[in-house]
Amino acid sequence: MLGEKGRKLTVVCDVSCDPNNEHNPVPIYTTWSTSDKPTLPVETKGDENTVPLSVISIDHLPSLLPRDASEAFSEALLPYLKNLDRGPGDGVWVGGGE
Which residue of 1, 27, 53, 70 has the fewest C-beta atoms within 10 A of its own C-beta? Predict the structure, then answer.
């Protein structure tokens, strides 16, 4: 299926990162990738495509995504939290009442 001509898919990101489990939901690779080398080539039988297929399988990726999102959200929210004590006539309070 992945080797069939006309495949548009070029990268698969498997956050389960469980290549050695017999119940691996994405059984197209056999080892993990790393932050230094985040993609690995996927060998497909009888591949008729000129575009290679790669997999991202960084073992700790599921824990990095929530951390990244939390840090970005905190960075955006912190300036408003620091000004909450200024009262209803200031910035975030005025915008929230509109």
Answer: 1
Beta carbons of 54 and 11 less than 8 angstroms apart: yes
The residues that bridge with 58 in the sheet, in sequence order, are 33
pLDDT of residue 97: 62
List the one residue out of 68, 67, 96, 70 whose CA is nearest residue 83: 96
DSSP assignment string, 7-52: ----EEE-TT--TTSTT-SSTT-SS-B-SSS-EEE---TT---SS-
Tokens 């840090």 belong to residue: 71
Q: How many whole angstroms separate alpha carbon 13 and alpha carbon 58?
A: 9
Strands 39-41 and 11-13: unpaired
* 59 touches 32 (CB < 8 A): yes
Q: Which residues pair with 56 in a beta bridge?
A: 13, 39
